[in-house]
Amino acid sequence: MAQYLNQVQFIMNEIENNILNIKKNIIKAELNSSRKENSVILMAVSKTQSVEKIKHAYNAGQKDFGENYLQEAVKKILELKNFDIIWHYIGKIQGNKAKLIADNFDWVHSADKISTLIKIDNYRNKLEKNLNVCIQVNIDNEESKSGIEIKNIEEFLESTHNLQNINIRGLMAIPQYQESFEDQFNTFKRLQDLFNNLVKKGYKLDTLSIGMSSDYHAAIEAGSTIIRIGTAIFGERIK
């Protein structure tokens, strides 16, 4: 029993230290980019992580959590319903998932089909709060990834005008892996330029969901407002 308790304490301390270190890095990156402090939200990507680990992160001050796998996520959300957690869905969206997504999440970061958004919008009408949505951009035009090509984003935004229970907040992207800070930044900068052009045209966007464990420093410099961090908080993901 003592060995088990020591192991739990070690995990708890490691998660807490990781979160504190990342938040310090976020503040440093904000300052280096001449941005306001607390302009970046840390989302802890908790897919495949246990409820206990999520509780440890929550007790360390973490409130935003991202999940990819819907059935797994719903179980966690139900088990943690008494915690004031903000739940983000960051997995692939399909029409048959629309009701569960609408019923359980505060944010969706991976919207790329208007037909599915219409379904989610219809199911969401039973809840008082609108669902926050980011449109996924296929920034590198990769066939293996979901998302909308840059040239089609404005047309997609136009098609969302009649949605009543969804707030389109901004853009999300998962770029190709780049090793150097400069290459990471240049990729994110293309998304920031797209975002800024859309705002200038009058689209009411305020969110850039970019940056993960390996590239969030570059993402913050390029204007990210939500970074999605899993490995750097919880360690290597359970397969």
Radius of gyration: 18 Å
CATH topology: TIM Barrel
Instruction: Determine and state the CATH class.
Output: Alpha Beta
Strand content: 15-25%
Describe the strand arrangement of the main beta sheet, using strand numbers: 7-6-5-4-3-2-1-8
Uncertain runs are 2-6
- Shape by Cα distribution: globular
Termini gap: 27 Å
The CATH architecture category equals Alpha-Beta Barrel
Structural class: alpha/beta
Notes on the structure:
By secondary structure, this protein is an alpha/beta fold. The chain has a single domain (2-234), classed as TIM Barrel (Alpha-Beta Barrel). 44% of the residues lie in helices and 17% in strands. It is built from 9 helices and 8 strands. The protein has an 8-stranded parallel β-sheet. Helix 1 (2-32) packs across helix 2 and helix 4 crosses helix 5 (114-124). It is globular.
